[in-house]
C-alpha cells in the first residue's frame, strides 16, 4: 500500500499542504516545533480516524480556524482509494472512503494498516505492565478473531469479582465461584494465545535488534503469567482471603507482563537511552512484520518520528537500510538534522523525497 498524495487544511499548525509522496522513503526535516510530527499525525488520522496524540478531535483544528480537513489518495493493491476526514467545530466528524461516509468509524480500522514509532512509545519499556499487555492485545487481536471476545468476557468477570471483594458483607461463595470459573475459562486460552504469540515474536524481534545494533548486545523478552503456577482456577481461588483483604483480585491474566532484558538485566533499569530506543524500534518492526503476515492484506505504512534522536549514526543507518528493504513498503521519517539524512539516503538503494517543514509550511 502507498499513500501517493495528501491534502491538509488547518490541521494543527499546518494551514495548507498538498504533497506528492515517494512510494519508498519520505523525510520531513525541520527544527523543533515546526510541524513535522503534525504531518505524521495527519497521516495517522487517515488510518485510525483519530490523532495519535490528541484524543479530542476539535483540538486538532488550527487555532483561530473553524474546521480541518485531511484527504489522502492511496494505492491499495492496485486500486485507488480516496479517504478523507473533515471536522467542523461543534459538529460530528465526517469520515469518508471514496466520498461515501462510514456508518461506523470502526469499519475503517484495518483498511490502511500503519505502524507509528514515536518518542511516546518508551512507555512500553518504562511504563506499567498494562502497556505491555496492551501491546500484546493489539497485535494478537489483529489476526485472532476470538481473542478480544475472550478478553472482554474475562474483564467483565474480573470486575464483578472485584465488586464482591469490596463489599462489606461476606461475599456469596457460589457467586464468587461462578465469576472465577469464567475468569479461568477465558483466561487459560488467552494465556495460550499470548504464549504462542510471544514464542513466535521473540526470534523476529531479536533478529531486528541484532541487525540494528550490529550484534552488539543480547536482548530478550520473557512472558510472565500466573497461569504458569498451575490451573488458573486454583491459582485464583488459593488467595481468596488475601484478595478480600485488599479488595481486588491479585491473580489472573490481568497481571501478565513481559520482562524485557538486555544481557542479564532488565532494560528498564540498565538500558541507555539509545539502547531503549533500539529495543523499542525492534519491537515495533517485529510488530510490523506480524501485522503484515497475519493481520492485513497489504504492507502497512511505517512512520518513524524523531528517529535520529539518541541513536548513533550506525544504528540510524541500519534502521534506514532495514526499512528501505522491500519487506517494508512506504516509510515516513522526521528528523531535525538534514545532513545526517542526506548522507544516509544517498547511500541507501531506495527512491526518496525530502520535505522541509517550517512553521507549518511544507516544501519539497
Ligand atoms: N491546534 C493547533 N493549532 C495551531 N498550532 C498547533 C495546534 N496544535 C499544535 N500546534 C503547534 O504545533 C507545533 C508542534 O508541532 P510538531 O509537529 O509537534 O513539531 P515538530 O516539528 O517538533 O515535530 C507547536 O508549536 C504547537 O503550538
Ligand atoms: Mg516532533
Structure description:
- The chain has 364 residues and is an alpha/beta fold.
- The chain has two domains: 2-113 and 297-363, Rossmann fold, CATH 3.40.50; 125-267, RecF/RecN/SMC, N-terminal domain (Glutathione S-transferase Yfyf (Class Pi), Chain A, domain 2, Up-down Bundle), CATH 1.20.1050.90.
- Helices cover 43% and strands 23% of the residues.
- The protein has eleven helices and 15 strands.
- It has helices spanning 36-48, 123-126, 129-143, 147-166, 173-213, 232-238, 240-246, 267-270, 273-295, 313-324, 338-347, and strands spanning 2-11, 14-20, 25-29, 67-76, 79-88, 94-97, 100-101, 114-117, 219-224, 257-262, 265-266, 301-304, 331-335, 352-358, 361-363.
- The strands form three sheets. A six-stranded antiparallel β-sheet has the order 2-1-4-5-6-7, covered by helices on one side. The chain has a six-stranded mixed β-sheet with strand order 8-12-13-3-14-15, sandwiched between helices.
- Helix 4 packs across helix 5 and helix 5 (173-213) crosses helix 9 (273-295).
- The protein is globular and about 70 Å long.
- The mean pLDDT is 93.
- The protein binds adenosine-5'-diphosphate and magnesium ion.
- Residues 12-13, 30, 32-38, 59-63, 357 line the site of adenosine-5'-diphosphate (ADP).
Summarize the structure.
With 364 residues, this protein is an alpha/beta fold. The chain has 2 domains: 2-113 and 297-363, P-loop containing nucleotide triphosphate hydrolases (Rossmann fold, 3-Layer(aba) Sandwich); 125-267, RecF/RecN/SMC, N-terminal domain (Glutathione S-transferase Yfyf (Class Pi), Chain A, domain 2), CATH 1.20.1050.90.
Amino acid at each position: 500500500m502507498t499513500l501517493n498524495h495528501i491534502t491538509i487544511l488547518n490541521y494543527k499548525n499546518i494551514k495548507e499542504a498538498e504533497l506528492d509522496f515517494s512510494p519508498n522513503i519520505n523525510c520531513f526535516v525541520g527544527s523543533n516545533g515546526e510541524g513535522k510530527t503534525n504531518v505524521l499525525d495527519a497521516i495517522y488520522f487517515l488510518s485510525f480516524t483519530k490523532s495519535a496524540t490528541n484524543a479530542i478531535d476539535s483540538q486538532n483544528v488550527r487555532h483561530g480556524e473553524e474546521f480541518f480537513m485531511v484527504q489522502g489518495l492511496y494505492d491499495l493493491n492496485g486500486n485507488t482509494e480516496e479517504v478523507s476526514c473533515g471536522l467542523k467545530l461543534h459538529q460530528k466528524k465526517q469520515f469518508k472512503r471514496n466520498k461515501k461516509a462510514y456508518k461506523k468509524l470502526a469499519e475503517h480500522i484495518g483498511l490502511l494498516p500503519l505502524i507509528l514509532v514515536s518518542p511516546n512509545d518508551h512507555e512500553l519499556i518504562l511504563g506499567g505492565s498494562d502497556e505491555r499487555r496492551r501491546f500484546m492485545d493489539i497485535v494478537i487481536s489483529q489476526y485472532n478473531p476470538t481473542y478480544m471476545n475472550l478478553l472482554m468476557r474475562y474483564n467483565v468477570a474480573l470486575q464483578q469479582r472485584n465488586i464482591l471483594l469490596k463489599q462489606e458483607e461476606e461475599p456469596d461463595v457460589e457467586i464468587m465461584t461462578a465469576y472465577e470459573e469464567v475468569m479461568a475459562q477465558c483466561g487459560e486460552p488467552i494465556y495460550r494465545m499470548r504464549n504462542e504469540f510471544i514464542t513466535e515474536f521473540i526470534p523476529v524481534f531479536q533478529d531486528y535488534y541484532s541487525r540494528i545494533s550490529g550484534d552488539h548486545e543480547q536482548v530478550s523478552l520473557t512472558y510472565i503469567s500466573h497461569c504458569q503456577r498451575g490451573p488458573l482456577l486454583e491459582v485464583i481461588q488459593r488467595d481468596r482471603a488475601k484478595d478480600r483483604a485488599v479488595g481486588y483480585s491479585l491473580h489472573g491474566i490481568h497481571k501478565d507482563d513481559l520482562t524485557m532484558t538486555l544481557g542479564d538485566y532488565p532494560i528498564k533499569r540498565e538500558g541507555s537511552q539509545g539502547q531503549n530506543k533500539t529495543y523499542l524500534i525492534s519491537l515495533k518492526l517485529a510488530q510490523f512484520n506480524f501485522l503484515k503476515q497475519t493481520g492485513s492484506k497489504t504492507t502497512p505504512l511505517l512512520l518513524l518520528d524523531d528517529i535520529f534522536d539518541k541513536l548513533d549514526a550506525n544504528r540510524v543507518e541500519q534502521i534506514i537500510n532495514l526499512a528501505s528493504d522491500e519487506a517494508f513498503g512506504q516509510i515516513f521519517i522526521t528528523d531535525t538534522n538534514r545532513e545526517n539524512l542526506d548522507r544516509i539516503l544517498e547511500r541507501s538503494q531506495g527512491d526518496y523525497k525530502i520535505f522541509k517543514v517550517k512553521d507549518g509550511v511544507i516544501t519539497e
